[in-house]
Write a structure and sequence with these properties.
mainly alpha; globular; 81 residues; 4 helices
Length: 81
């Protein structure tokens, strides 16, 4: 994947997060504290499938990345970072 495609993919992820924060009640309600358990759960799922690799790992990494993106959005919204 070339650099422009990577930038477009990252931009799309951020657009999806913006949409979720705007339109999804569950995503709007999340806080740093409520996200803690989900991030831990996804991290353990990544660790569990690491030895297997492949698409299962890719799927779990995608789930973890979405959690990280949501936490980053919370930080942007409250001015923390």
């Amino acid at each position: 994947m070339n650099y422009d495609k990577k930038l477009k993919a990252a931009e799309r992820l951020l657009e999806v997060m913006d949409t979720l924060r705007e339109k999804c009640p569950w995503d709007r309600e999340q806080t740093y504290e409520t996200m803690r358990k989900y991030v831990l759960e996804e991290a353990y799922e990544v660790a569990d499938v690491c030895p297997e690799g492949g698409m299962k790992l890719a799927d779990e990494l995608g789930d973890l990345l979405l959690q990280i993106t949501l936490l980053s959005e919370l930080g942007k919204e409250d001015g923390t970072f």
